[in-house]
Amino acid sequence: MTLGVLFSALEFGLIYALIALSLFISFTILNICDLSTDGCYMLGAAVGVLFTIMGHPLLAILAAMLAGVASGFVCAILQTKLGVPSILAGIVVNTGLYTVNLCVMGLKTQLNLVNKDTVFSLFGGISESAFWQKSYKLILLIIIVALVGTLIYLFLGTGLGLSIRATGDSPAMVRASSIDPSFTITVGLMISGSLTGLAGCLAGQYSKTAEINMGTGMVTIALASLIIGSTIFGRGKMPVKIFGAVMGSVIYRIIIAIALRLRVPTQAFKLVSAIIVAVAIAAPKVSEIYAMNKRKKAAMARRGK
After folding, report:
1. Residue-wise pLDDT tens for the chain (305 aa)?
2. Closest by alpha carbon to 9, among 292, 254, 299?
3. In b/e form, how buried is each residue of 131-161, taking b as 16+ CB within 10 angstroms?
4. How many CB atoms are located within 10 Å of the residue 209 CB?
């Protein structure tokens, strides 16, 4: 694997880490399966690229995050006020966002950033040194992901953050404590949507394009990242969980990069993703079975003596 391929894998891994952190809030903390991620990611890319085309690459980030907040809000209202199951609510929002994204893009299936400044080009203009020009994208993404991870950790330690965590553990207990679980779920999904929108915006500016189907499979990638992270780094304290989600995404992209180097057809990537998820899910159970068999053999050996 060349240095350029590794850098590209790390950069995309960090962008996808924001989606993993998004699902960390909705799936791990709130215990809600939010399937609107694919459409929300595309919404962030469409809004971000559109604002960048208009000459506002920094404002594009805020606009994309607000668009993600709106997506999360709609998904939360369907669940909390209209009684729609979380899985179905995510599917409904994801389906509706396809048309919304087309409208944002002016009924085009693709938008391109030609000769337009992005947050990456602005950051890259800080220095002309060879090292900086090779690594400025990676450095910027590390800063963004580290900042987001830190803010999530700090937020989850506040009163509202603890209420959101408690809602995922036991909505009945939260309700008994005079806290409205509908409010905490709504806030949690809005934060989750903002992170997905941010990831979409950064991906659009990174690749300088927004294509209507670029969000397809983002739920699978994010879930794979969460599972890989929790499998490797365990389920320790909150900083470890957040770091695991980020590193799981990076590891996932490195695996995909290796698959590319092995000339795996791009049409087979969904199968590769499914295998990665299956292996990550099964790894703890396989490890447990292996340890149990090892203990049995040791016990039998002692009895044989």
Report:
1. 577 778 888 999 999 999 999 999 999 899 888 899 999 999 999 999 999 999 999 999 999 999 999 999 999 999 999 999 989 999 999 999 999 999 999 999 999 988 889 999 999 999 889 889 889 999 999 999 999 999 999 999 999 999 999 998 888 888 888 888 999 999 999 999 999 999 999 999 999 999 999 988 888 888 888 888 888 886 778 999 999 999 999 988 888 888 777 777 767 777 777 787 777 777 777 878 888 888 888 888 777 65
2. 254
3. eeeebbbbebbeebbeebbeebbeebeeeeb
4. 16
- Beta strand 110-112 with 209-211 is antiparallel
Structure tokens at 175: 């309700």
Local structure of 146: helix, strand or coil: helix
- Cβ atoms of 218 and 194 within 8 Å: the answer is no
How far does Cα 89 stand from its chain's mean position?
Answer: 19
What's the whole-model pTM score?
0.89
Residue with tokens 């929002």: 93
Q: Helix, strand or coil for residue 208?
A: coil
| SS3 of residue 112 by DSSP | strand
Query: DSSP 3-state assignment of 110?
Result: strand
**All structural domains of the chain with their residue ranges:** 3-215
Interatomic CA distance for residues 104 and 114, integer angstroms: 18
Q: How far apart (Å, rounded) are the C-alpha atoms in residues 140 and 58?
A: 13
DSSP character for 24? I
- Give CA–CA dist 237/242, Å, rounded: 9
Calculate helix-pair angle for 130-156, 159-169, nearest 10 degrees.
70
